[in-house]
Amino acid sequence: MVGVPEDLAAALAALRPMLLDTGTLVRAVAAGRRRGAVPSCARAELRPVDLKAGRLLQVVTTDGRTPTTRNRAPGQDAERAVDALLAEPFGSWHVETSDAVVQLRVTKKGDAQVHTARTSRRDDGADRVTAHDRPKERLLDPGDPLFGALGADADKRRQVDAFLRLLAPVVGRALDHARAAGRPLRVVDLGCGNAYLTFAAHRWLSGRPDVAATGVTTVGVDVRADMVSRNTRLAAELGLAGLRFVTGTIADADVPDAMDAPQAVDVVLALHACDTATDEALARAVRWEAPVVLAAPCCHHDVQRQLVRAQADGDPPPHPYTALTRHGILRERFADVLTDAIRAALLRLLGYRVDVVEFVDSRHTARNALVRAERTGAAADTARRAEYLDLTAAWHVEPALARMLSAEVATALEVDA
Description:
Rossmann fold; alpha/beta; single chain; 7-stranded mixed beta sheet; 2 domains
């Protein structure tokens, strides 16, 4: 139902018990700002989470760039956190409970405009199904406390499941590699960020009987110390043994327990690393001779710039493909495809079997391609050499990955006498 403007203090007071009831609260979001006032954070989100300490109220605040997560115990700790947020001059509140959705908007006059809708949510935050739907079995239980601690919504859980289904077919090769060395499985996520998939991969692998027999060590790498600190804290709260995070760049980070030998890493992940950062991750994977690599590239500016420069220098695309790069938007999309095609060709040249597959549905992100590579160690043959050389020569590009692996590529291109 839609209410008439009412006293703001009274309307906010009515939200307070909803925010504190972790038995019925589903999610609450505060955002925006009131006229003439600025809150101390750009956005705040509250939700109940189940951790080892029991059910807590998770409060995630952000300045627009960096999220800060705090888990508040029931009682005074949670009450102080909620009261502090209600006192902030946010412009709106959106509160979902098990039986209602309440939207509060602060008007220009400083009143509260409240919209309330009844609902009949009976799920625990997992994907809802109707009586005619067949529930899809998830590789990782949607009700796992991991998702609550990370603040993962239904879309994130679907992305996790899609990723794990792409990892599942190649785990055997990685596990064989670890067993041959007589040590636990080793996974490195280069550029892990919020680490949704790092946490999920470690949790899922740890629960596999074949992996549990040897154990698994996972290292997440990110350049931002605040993200590494946050991820480290969450890993401890969730009791995830063998999962740790280090600060550093993709190209240079010191990865614990993964630098004692070139073959010491079994799985390398690089998910949505921007532009040539994906190439840096692939280069490290090749140098480690990692048996399994999963990389979901993000933007592809390097090849795009080279296409523009080549045309300016009088080196147009091969006939009749000038139309592919004549228009900016087509050139940008084609550069994405060309970049990943060259990456795949290079990995094949360097002894990998490669698939380029859809990562998640395109409605979630346009950057939905994933390069999945398994190391076979096969030497480059004439066909692979010709494919790579013809592709780069035709488009007048020098791939970043080839520059980073210049010695390895030169060796692969040598023709035996």
